[in-house]
Structures are given as C-alpha cells and as structure tokens.
Design brief:
The complex is a heterodimer. By secondary structure, chain A is mainly alpha-helical. Chain A has four helices and two strands; from the N terminus they run H-H-E-E-H-H. Chain A folds into two domains: 33 residues; 72 residues, no CATH class. Classes of the chains: A mainly alpha, B mainly alpha.
Chain lengths: 105, 233
Amino acid sequence: MISPMTLIISAVVLGAFTYGFRVAGPLLHGRMAPSPQTQEWMTSAATVLLVALCVTSAFADGKEWSDPARPIAVAVAGLAAWFRAPFLVVVLIAAVTAAVIRLVT
Amino acid sequence: MRRLLDLLGPATLRDLLLVNVAVGLVGVSYGAITVGAGFEIWVPTLMSIVVFGGASQFLFTGLIAAGASPIAAVAAGALVNARHLPFGFALADTVSKRPWLGGYLMIDEVVAFALAQRDPARRRLVFFTCGAMLWTFWNVGALLGGLLGQAIPDTDAWGLDAAFPAVLLALVMPAMRQARIRNASLLGAVIALALTPFVPAGLAVLCALAALLVVRPHRAADAGTDAGTGGTA
C-alpha cells in the first residue's frame, strides 16, 4: 500500500476538491449555477463509478476473483435494498450471509 | 439547548435521531472495513474529518486498498462529490451568514433535511443542527469502527468484506429505479469486470465511465441535441 505521507496528501487534496464543490454555491450566492445537463451528467457519472466499484469489490480482490460467498452475499443484500429495506438491514444481511456461507462450506 | 429542542419539535427531532443513528452505524462499518483492509487506525478518522463524505470515502480507501494509484483514487472521489456542487447553489441563501461552515457540513442527509423545511429561519436552524449532529455521529462512528476492526483479527470470517459493496449498493439503489442510469451503470459494471484481470483495479473502475458514451443518461441526448456542445443551457 502507499506511504502514510502520500495517503495524507491524497486525503487533503480530495478534501479540498470536496470542500470546493460544496462552498462554491454559498460563496457565489447562488449565481452561476451549473447547467441542468452538467448536473445530470455529474450525478450519472458518480452513480456509474459507485456501481463499478461495487461489482469489482464484490467479485474481485485486485486482479484475483473472490470466493463465491461475497458476490452471493452482495446479491442478497441488493435484493433487500431493491425492496426498500433500511440501510442498516441491507449491510447486516450482506455480512451475515457471507459469514454463514463461509461457516457451512 | 432547551429552546433549540422546542423550536425543532418532537417529530423533527425523532427523524433527526433516526438518520443520525443510521449514519453513525455506516460510520462504524466504514472504520471497521478500512482498518480491516489494512489501513492504520487513524486513517478512517482522518478521512472522515478532512473529506466528510461517506460514498467518496468508501470509494477512495477501497480503490487504494485494491492497489489503485492515489491520483486515480482522488479523481474518483472528487467525481463522486461533484454532486454536491448543485446542493451549494440550492442552499446558498440558507448558509449565507456562515458560508465557510455551511459548505463544510453540506452532505446529502443535511441537504435533504434542510430542503424539506419551507420557512427560511427554520431551514437554517435544521441545516446547522443536523449538520453538527451528523458530523459528530459520523466521526465517532468511524473511530469506534476502526477500534472494532482492530479487535477482530479475521474480518472476512465476519463477512465484513461483503459489507463494503453492500453499502455502495444501498447508496445507489434509489438511482437504479431510473432506467437510463440503471442501463449505464450495468454496462459500466460489465466493462469494469471484464477489465479487472488485466488492468489495475482503480483503472477498471474509472473505465466504467465509458458506458456514458454509449448509454446517455440525460434526456437532452434523446431529444437529438449533441451533448458535446452543451449550447442549449
């Protein structure tokens, strides 16, 4: 993994970007808002990234495929989320399903 | 304090507490997963204070843990938080007296709560109360989770490795009800998975954005406007 110094600098840079996005509106007093198309593209891009990270971290560790327990557990949790189970329940279902599959296999 | 509680009213207070407990527990899972992935105990706390944005924090540490370069992780995290830009414009009047603090506290749940209030004074009160509470719950949660992750030697046996993708899935599920975004996301997921054995992990995730070239999620593209020019707005 990367060195602590690189990690701290990266975290601060990400923090600066994040703060810049949030504080821009208040500092400009609501003038110069980004166009609806730009806003919609940013929302879509963020969602696509999060879903891609979700499936790659469900199916793989780096370049190696994971054991079957993890993707199965995530799929079960996804089903619960689709049927509007509370956030916490979804996360608990994922952890418990993976743990139980590993216990019995 | 008493006056603040009276001003907010019991119904709003109950909702605030429920959201805060949920966010606190997601903070616990963030701390535990991050430490379980091999980061030191101070990393979840540093991230939670400096960035203060759940999805981007999961994305950032997840990518680094998977071997991505810091630049890729920062870029991906920043792209996720770019969704906060329109929030700032929507709530510019609400935080006009304290823009620097208001900008720092402007996370999804705070924005949702504040926008639900019609009266400007009440909206301001709810924004800063909710923001201060969520900041506290999120950071205490991340710290406790880090300690928990340290105490459990084998996080995989507890299924904690499945908790991270599940958190992401729960975060994006509301957006998945829109067919266009769902299609783009599914195509992106296929691209990322297909590339996973061949490229560094962070790069595979970023390549998922290519899906947006094929499936255009916004309506303007369907109406025949060239998305590249963006001249209509």
